[in-house]
Amino acid sequence: MSIIIDEELCTGCASCMESCIYGAIELDNNIAFVLPNCNLCGACVEVCPEEAISLDRDDVKAQKIDISQFKGVWVVAEHYKKKIHNVSLQLLCKGRELADLLQVNLSLVILGTDFDDKLEEFSLYGMDEIIYIKSPILKDYYSDLYTKVITELVLENKPEIILIGATPTGRDFAPRVAKRLSAGLTADCTGLEINLETRNLLQTRPTYGGAIMATIRTPSSRPQMATVRAGIFKMPEKVKKNVNIRKLEYEFKEKDSVLKIVKVISKTRNSVNLEDAKFIVAGGRGVGSKEKFRIIEELAEVLDAELGGSRITVELNWLDPDRQIGQTGKTVSPKLYIACGISGAIQHLVGMQNSGIIVAINKDPNAPIFNWAHYGIVGDLHEIIPALIEEIKKTKSEQ
Amino acid sequence: MCIKQVPGVSEVKIDPNTNTLVREGVLSIINPNDRNAIELALMLKEKHKLEVIALSMGPPQAEEILREVLAMGVDKGVLLTDRAFAGADTLATSHTLSLAIKKILKESNSEEKYLIICGAQAIDGDTGQVPPELAEELGIPQITYVLNIELSEDKIVAERKFRATEIVIIETQLPALISVLNDINKPRYPSIAGIMKAYEKARLTYLDSNTLNADKSKIGLNGSMTEVRKIFIPKRRVNPIMLVGSNEEVVQKLCQHLKEDKIF
Q1: How far off is chain A from B193, nearest CA to CA, in Å?
Q2: A131 and A160 share a domain?
Q3: Alpha helices in A241-338 (DSSP H)
Q4: How far apart are CA A1 and CA B205, in angstroms?
Q5: 8 Å CB contact of B229 and A217
Q6: A320 and A224, same structural domain?
Q7: Is residue B172 part of a domain?
Q8: Same domain, yes or no, for A126 and A74?
Q9: What domain range includes position A336?
């Protein structure tokens, strides 16, 4: 396996050098050459305007499967207290779009118990079919039982796409299922598209902390599996339609799992709910100190908004970790996002770029956050925010 | 323990003028989360009688991180390095790691009782997929996103972060695999004596695809089901409306806009 550069076609334009995140291509005498630290990711192949680069694969690819047998889009539901997690509903919305393009059915797969009286309510979210796996033990999450049930279902029904929430649960069983099925799995996708010709799912995800986006496909294996975080896709509209319900009962006993749930501990502190917040006010390093964060909190209070922050504010202990927004924190999509003193490192941007309206307040006119904001104010946030609080109070009292 | 060498920053910087990656000054380090895995292994070693082996797959320079963990107190390091491993996705990576683990277990006669510890995820790829895939490949139970663990003769009891407000305590038999979060502990620094020891030759073993008897169709690029179609730098999304004037003027303008946008 290697990257081959056709020296006759290479013009020395350096596009490949710029595309290489490993710094593994250099120019010698205006001809590109590959260094030993090349990771064979193939990114340079796509960018070369002269088509001078090719990825030479050994012809030992594992046995190919007949991918045309696989049809349909599945969403595996995550649930909590008899409700479906928002991320699963958002996946149904995206899944509907993909299923329509592919002209196949969209199915929701639920593993649980006592959902019988909820299926009618769930059936409003646009799927064609609900596959309900019922077993009393599945009121809790067991990685091994989930893996067993889902792989068996996949082998029998052969869906071409499976979408799973990138939650601690989804990220636990999805890789295990993928391994058992030898299926490709892409984590934390922020974009999902279909190539209609090949029926390949084009999965775009941030990598290297979001500095780079990669589009990934699984050309020779099915199903194509992807996890997606909450807040990336829209919530579906409710529709009334005929939904086929398949209920399968499993006789699991506790000893069927190698795992034993000793207990579940709930933390009773005020829970922060950034994912569902309509308004968010977030602060960054520019706020200055923990004490000075008070003004950001005040703005949040006036707006009835949830309070958030960039990673550095959590590292400096100005904010609780569960308020962190970005690649290593929460992904949010409020109607209004006010970024105060946040420069806009890409790892923060990937966590809030789907917000409805983004307002940026920063004293540095060159801060990258302005490239992502709908409204920008250059100035000292400690002067602007108090004025803004007054103005909002005034606006509210007029209404 | 499985560890990985990654670029020493959580975010690769982009030069705003050329829109290309800035590579100067980016050192390679141990993936931060993996340091927590090492610290946990060393703490368990202090309490129980066990041997701690660190395993990494990567280019020859990944030897640096194995020397560093040896200096922290790890007993042995194993580096899987071969051009044939390059281009691996998580499926191919977990397969390669499993081959090495099986070999190590067989040679040390510890196939019955072992614990694999991984960091929950790496700061470069950030998928967190290798630990469950490795557990599946080894046919052992997994507990991911672990905040605390008790190890006894033949079982573990682990606290797993389940939701923002919930922790689940799970018990399982050994052998098992866990992946740990960074809140589990504070990793130690290498000691001077440790650094001296780290360069003893016998402590580091190199394995390649031949010594692992690897099926070439299951490793590296060939063994990968996913392939990178393209890599790009995210582009700006909107042209901002910049509000200028006195503080009072700008906040008035902002509220006016937000009213028109039906936010208020």
Answers
A1: 32
A2: yes
A3: 294-303, 311-315
A4: 25
A5: yes
A6: no
A7: yes
A8: yes
A9: 279-398
Q: Is A18 helix (H, G, I), strand (E, B) or coil?
A: helix
Cβ separation B126–A186 shorter than 8 A: no
Would you call A387 and B251 a contact, using CB atoms and an 8 Å cutoff? yes
Token reading at A196? 């209609």
Find chain B residues with C-beta within 8 A of A269's C-beta: 165
The predicted pLDDT at position A57 comes to: 67
* Identity of residue A370: F
β-pair partners for B171: A260, B157
User: Does the residue B185 lie in any domain?
Assistant: yes
Contact residues, chain A, for B221 at CB < 8 Å: 1, 40, 55, 57
Kind of pairing between the strands at B166-173 and B155-163: antiparallel
Do residue A36 and residue B230 have CB atoms under 8 angstroms apart?
Answer: no
Cα nearest neighbour of B222 on chain A: A61
A247: domain CATH number? 3.40.50.620
pLDDT at B13: 61
**Model confidence over A365-392: pLDDT tens digits?**
999 899 889 999 999 999 999 999 999 9
SS3 (DSSP) at A47 = helix
CB within 8 Å: A1 and B255: no
Chain A residues with beta carbon closer than 8 angstroms to that of B13? 211
Token pair 């901002």 is found at: B240
C-alpha distance from A244 to closest chain B C-alpha (Å): 31
pLDDT tens per residue, range B135-144: 999 999 999 9
> Of the candidates A56, A77, A93, which is a domain's last residue?
A56
Cα–Cα dist A50/A219, whole Å: 24
Q: Does residue A298 share a domain with residue A202?
A: no
Interval B179-222: pLDDT, tens: 999 889 989 988 888 888 888 877 899 999 999 999 999 999 88
How many CB atoms are located within 10 Å of the residue B212 CB? Answer: 19
Mean pLDDT within B55-73: 92
The CATH code of the domain that includes A341 is: 3.40.50.1220
Residues of A in contact with B84 (CB under 8 A): 1
Q: Is B128 inside a domain boundary?
A: yes
The total number of structural domains in chain A stands at 3
Instruction: Tell me if A179 and B132 make a contact (CB, 8 A cut-off).
Output: yes
- Which residue among A60, A175, A188 places its CB closest to the CB of B90? A175
Instruction: State the total domains in chain B.
Output: 1
Per-residue CA distances from B218 to A156, B62, B94, B116 (Å)? 25, 22, 10, 22
Q: Are residues A248 and A346 in the same domain?
A: no
Q: How many CB atoms lie within 10 A of CB A172?
A: 24
Same domain for A142 and A34: no
Q: What is the largest CA-CA distance in chain B?
A: 76
Beta carbons of A176 and B133 less than 8 Å apart:
yes
Q: Which of A20, A54, A172 to mutate to test the interface with B (most CBs of B within 10 A)?
A: A172
Assess if residue A267 is contained within a domain.
no
How far is residue A45 from each of residues A5, A50, A234, B22, B89, measured CA to CA in Å? 9, 10, 34, 21, 18
Q: pLDDT tens track of chain A, all 399 residues?
A: 678 899 889 999 988 888 787 778 888 888 999 887 787 777 788 788 888 998 876 655 545 678 899 999 999 999 988 899 999 999 999 999 999 999 999 999 999 998 999 999 999 999 999 999 999 999 999 999 999 999 999 999 999 999 999 999 999 999 999 999 999 999 999 999 999 999 999 999 988 767 778 899 999 899 999 999 888 898 999 999 999 999 999 988 888 999 999 999 887 555 678 888 999 999 999 999 999 999 999 999 999 999 999 999 998 999 988 899 987 788 888 999 999 999 998 778 888 988 889 999 999 999 989 988 999 999 999 999 999 999 999 988 887
